[in-house]
Amino acid sequence: MDTPAQIASNISDTVPKTVPVSSDSVNPQLGEMQKTEGEKNYQTLFELSNDAIMILDDTGFIDCNKATLQSFGYLTKEEFCGKSPWDHSPPVQPDGRQSQEKATEMIEKAKREGKNFFEWVHRRSGGEDFPAEVLLTPVYYKGKPVILASVRDITDRKKAEDTLKESNELLSLYVANSPIYTYIKSVTPTEGRVVYASNNFNELIGGPVRNVSGKLTSELFPAEFAKKIAADDWKIFSSHEGVTLEENFNGHNYTTIKFPIHLKDKQLIAGYTIDITKRKQSEESLKKSNELYTTTIFAINDGVWDWDVQTGNAFFSETYYTLLGYTDKEFPANYTTWKSLVHPDDVERAEKELQEGIGSDKGFAIQLRMKMKSGEWLWVSIRGKAIEKDKEGKAVRMVGTLTDITKQMQAEQSLQEKIEELERMNSLMVGRETAMVELKEKIKTLEAALGQKGAV
After folding, report:
1. Is the CATH number of domain 4-156 3.40.50.300?
2. Topology of domain 173-279, per CATH?
3. What's the pLDDT tens digit per position in 243-253?
């Protein structure tokens, strides 16, 4: 589709800028033919143009094409014509100037300079404003000077521009204010120069340099480190691939992601750097904690378990397995497997105490028998406590220990047997003492009877 400037140029070429009287007097028929042909060409372009085209004189609009009626929301030319440009515009333009004042100025400029191309805000018949490109060209129409106006609705283009502008502003604000150190650099085999950097980049370099943009890498970092950075940057650009680096600088740990940017003949890389010092410290602390945990597990000679109450999945330590005669992870670590190893006579009691422990802050301690790989029954003590709870206060994760108490149970059983034996012996002794007392009583009674008989 032709631009407003091209359309105006075509129409201007077909519409005589002046009607040469001398041509008519010399050859009236030829002059009339030229005017007729020009008007036909003009009328064809005028009506077929997709842009709104109108003719304006000192009284207002005197003609317009169909595209004008469609753009401005009118049904007939009579509704549109007879009005001034500012009658089809809001009272004030975006720059704050009155539409009538500014329109008059634009028309005078077109007359003075031969054309005037500018942006304008028009108003449709229904009151809706729309942005437009306007080209005003002075021409002669039917023997009198007029202004040929071409108007193109640029609403869609403006929306696209506004969206792109907003997107760019949003991206710019994100990069500028991000807690991540962000930058773009131009690079060579031996040096790099900052093209753009986020506002917080000074924190990374740890120095007083405020205007980072435009600075060389060697101006921002110590010589050896700057040399390494320059080499890494050029390698990244040359390989056309992004990389992730871990770096140490000024006592901090960083993760840096860099990637090449190919823009015309420019040699650029972009990157962002994240301070991971706290994360590294947390990882180191966790590592030490895990080492201590592992050492403790092996030192206490007890099995350790960690149970997800909701899923039933669990963790059993290596010692947990070996206590039962198995190798590490020889059977699945979950509640179902654990229950299958509990002595049938102990299952109901064990589950009851577990449920009480799940809803209690005190934890639980259960003594029961578990089946070993050999088929023997092992007396164990299971202790546990909730370390995570839901909103209702019920345990969702529990940890604890598994302790072999077979010897303890055997000792208790032996002690019980001895107690029972002593009680039995005591019972026998008590029985004998009772019999002796009864015997003595009988002897006394007999002696008394004999004595009475002798006296007689």
Report:
1. no
2. Beta-Lactamase (3.30.450)
3. 888 888 888 88
**Beta-strand pair 60-64/181-187:** unpaired
pLDDT of amino acid 147: 95
Please name the amino acid found at residue 393. G
Residue 301 DSSP class: T
3-state percent breakdown (helix, strand, coil) of the chain, nearest 5: 50, 30, 25
Q: Which of 103, 84, 94 is nearest to 130 (CA)?
A: 94
Structure tokens belonging to residue 285: 């602390």
H helix count then E strand count, the chain: 15, 15
Please identify every stretch of the chain with a pLDDT value under 70, giving residue numbers as ranges: 1-45, 206-210, 290, 292-300, 429-435, 447, 450-456
pLDDT tens-place string over residues 364-415: 899 999 999 999 999 999 998 888 888 888 889 998 899 999 888 888 878 8
Tokens matching residue 190:
């031996």
In the numeric block, which tokens belong to residue 121? 């805000």
Contact predicate 145/12, CB 8 Å = no
Domain spans of the chain? 4-156, 173-279, 301-409
Would strands 181-187 and 266-275 be described as parallel, antiparallel, or unpaired? antiparallel
Looking at this protein, which amino acid is placed at residue 53?
I
How much is the pTM? 0.45
